[in-house]
Amino acid sequence: MDRTDPGNPYLSGLYAPVGEEVTARELPVTGHVPDALNGRYLRNGPNPMEVADPAAHHWFTGQGMVHGVRLRGGRAEWYRNRWVRSDAVALRLGEKLPHGPRHLDMDAAPNTHILRFAGRYLATVEGGPLPYELDGELNTIGPHDFGGTLRGGFAAHTVLDPANGELHAVAYCWAYPYVTYLVIGADGRVRRSVDVPVEGRPMMHDFSLTDSHVLLYDLPVVFSTQAAADGTGIPYVWDPERQPRLGVLPRDGDAADVRWLEIDPCFVFHPMNAYEEDGRITVRLARYDRLFGKGSAGPDESPPLLERWTVDLAAGSVACERLDDRPMEFPRVDPRRHTLPHRYGYGVVAPAEGYAGAAARLHLSGQEVPVANRRVGAGLVKYDLERGTSEVRHNAPGEDSGEAVFVPAGPDSAEDDGWLLSYVFDPERGASDLVILDARDITGDPVARVHLPVRVPVGFHGNWVPDAG
Question: How many CB atoms lie within 10 A of CB 417?
């Protein structure tokens, strides 16, 4: 079955899946790769192998493909792209099936994130499947349940606590009336698991972590049995009758200790970071007024805008303040500042001609989508959150930026002393570059552009994985 469809924005243009796994060595570079960058830049995203019904295909449902560039000694040693091998992927490729545990017999090829923890590369996805372990050359080892200590599914997003090296996550599954707060010790074993009852089986894509609390986003996007039975798009819809809540769970608390605070209707895919000071929690995030509105593409569907939420624990209130009127997604910070106050944040700025998410909804509601709206990133933005200012790096016409990951120049370097790494599509070559920017001068010339031999489709999240030692 053809995996491309000019009528579906998720199967055409920059979203179109690539058909081959590629290995390229000694990549050409414009500029100079910093000698301190020794490791791998990895990014995960959907790359469907087969699409039974192109008209109904949704971006979130394709099999995961990890794209990686190996940097060492000022050189770009290799580029690789590899499908994550679920049983279905391995069968289609004529390979041996991966061995390992399953949760609810889910056969998944995680397509959302990639991280390294406790010596293992893990591709992750939400909704119930386990993470899948890869090796350093992106070959799939198999499903991973943290040495048998993970009794359910896992999550797309995690937060590594810089204070003690523990990994935190909030997992949900369509089959369960609760979400699970997980803490995985530095030894790679789950040491804490707290089930928090929630009604309606909401989509809880991400969460926030401070040094004392976990924030749970119980919002009006919920699992729909009717949508699942219809088999169109993804089985989650906006429920206008559902009261949105922010849950505040002490890190050492149980489900009964969650404080649920009512907030205005919205949806959040990605927080930037959260921290506590003087009895208040500050979290910055990309907020949508409404999403998954049952095919609607009207004014109640909105782009993501950067907001600051201030949680007053004594008063039991949440104050929301918009920080930027430009659509922005994929917020990131210096990973050393997770759970801590931070001055800087980074994100992807949506195209001026239209937000790509809105374009996708126009298609799903039966309207034609302009080709120009099939981009995601018109540039990158750096926020100085103390001064309330920002700088934007605008892409050249036709270029498209993915998520930008901050890499510190050294363990003790200043918060913005380092580099931003992002895959950027180059329309002149019809292929992508790994662009390395000086984080202190994001509007200046790139430090380096590593020229990849192929296009990297629009995807989701990734990480810089430094060499050990």
Answer: 14
